[in-house]
Amino acid sequence: MSTDAATTIPPAEQLGTPSRRRSGMVRTRVAITIAVVLLLVGIGGGYAIGNLLHSGSSTTVLTETGSSLLYPLMKIWGPNYTAYNPSISVSPVSSGSGIGQSDAELGLVNIGASDGYVVNGSVTNIINVPVAISAQLIWYNLPGLTGHLNLNGTVLGMIYAQDITNWTNPWILNAQNASIRNELATRDANLPIYTVVRADSSGDTFLFTSLCYMSWSDFPFQPANGGLSGLAGSRVIPETGNAGMVQGVESQVGAIAYIGISYTRTVSGPNLNYAAVGDNASLSSLGGENTSNYVLPTAANISADATLGLQRLDFAQQQLAVSLILGGSWAGAVNLVRGGGGSNPTGNSTPYPITNLEYALIKTVPEGNIVTLSALRESVNFLQWAITFGNLPVYLSQVGFLPLTSEVAGLDTAELSSVQV
């Protein structure tokens, strides 16, 4: 089923999010939230919660813009929320995380969507509300390959810095198993690498440059929504949105692209596949193979990375503004350490390194003609639905996202209660 499909379904599944230790008000809010969700699921679910949350009788259109990674989920959530609450319509637009952030801060939309958090959001009366856990995939267009390439943050940084320019470079070859190494060396000898990049202000670029920056001390670009804007050359392919990135990698043999997981079902072509991604522990002096540190973006591996990142997050200091790159990194993704990504401690799990929280951004006070008191109230209601019923696997699995942990859902609830409606 296409990620653009808007499927209305009955809320018949239970909310299955990992339970973690909480305290005080957060524990109470989470317990109440989950109890209410399970009760409502038992008595007919969405229609009941829509009636409970909805406080007005007039029709309201909530405008949303931003992250192209979050857009497919918003396309699914919108009509399902309207089915629960017929007086509310959600109108999403895929415009890139940078636009989502700026439009939300300026009060030009009711909800901004972003893969990256807004730092110091209180200055513009913005809160970052995580709504799901996502991941980013590294896609490539290479004919004749059977299986997934092994790539890591350092090698990806070297590719996008144009230090590695063809697919037979030793740093790439030495990271592969014997079969793929032979296929690369014999079928794709000296095949040039084409780097597909986001031309718009993109949270996906922030995630990708964060990985490279934390993994390789010589990475020449800063982690930012426009972090690769200085990249140029005949083998650089600029594209807009995740849909554009898909088109870019599909249309050029030898291309590589970073694409949000929610677009996995839209990628097609006989030469296309995504990489197993490793951390710095997967490196040797020649970039050699350590298969235990190259992992695929499965639900279990993404969840394992998110768990690490959320365990390392100082909620009191950083609230909910964090990237989960490399398990949150012991340095913290808010204060990135150049080349300090190191290994992603695995224990009994196998974390996928490029994992992230997806954010909805809303004002905490009414402002202007768009973020009115009534519209802000309905935005809060919609996000309360999103972090409870909207986090059911029946919605999230359509785009490869995972539910929030109980702790984050509880902190979301506390944060939304601070909105002045």
Summarize the structure.
The protein is α/β, with parallel strands linked by helices and 421 residues long. The chain is built from 14 helices and twelve strands.
Q: Strand count, sense and closure of the main sheet? A: 9 strands, mixed
Helix content: 25-40%
The CATH topology label of the largest domain is D-Maltodextrin-Binding Protein, domain 2
CATH architecture of the largest domain: 3-Layer(aba) Sandwich
Strand content: 15-25%
What would you call the quaternary organization?
single chain
Per CATH, the class of the largest domain reads Alpha Beta
Number of strands: 12
**How many domain regions?**
2
The string of secondary-structure elements, in order, is HHEHEHEEEHHHEHEHEEEEHHEHHH
Rg of Cα set: 21 Å
Mean pLDDT: 81
Distance between the termini: 38 Å
Word description of this protein:
- This protein has 421 residues and is α/β, with parallel strands linked by helices.
- The protein has helices at 24-43, 46-53, 71-84, 97-105, 153-160, 170-173, 178-187, 203-215, 241-251, 299-312, 315-318, 373-386, 393-396, 406-416, and strands at residues 60-66, 88-94, 111-114, 126-141, 150-152, 194-198, 236-239, 255-260, 272-274, 276-278, 294-295, 355-363.
- The two termini are 38 Å apart.
SSE blueprint:
Blueprint: H1 24-43, H2 46-53, E1 60-66, H3 71-84, E2 88-94, H4 97-105, E3 111-114, E4 126-141, E5 150-152, H5 153-160, H6 170-173, H7 178-187, E6 194-198, H8 203-215, E7 236-239, H9 241-251, E8 255-260, E9 272-274, E10 276-278, E11 294-295, H10 299-312, H11 315-318, E12 355-363, H12 373-386, H13 393-396, H14 406-416
Parallel strand pairs: 1-2, 1-3, 5-10, 6-7, 6-8
Antiparallel strand pairs: 3-12, 4-8, 4-9, 4-12, 10-11
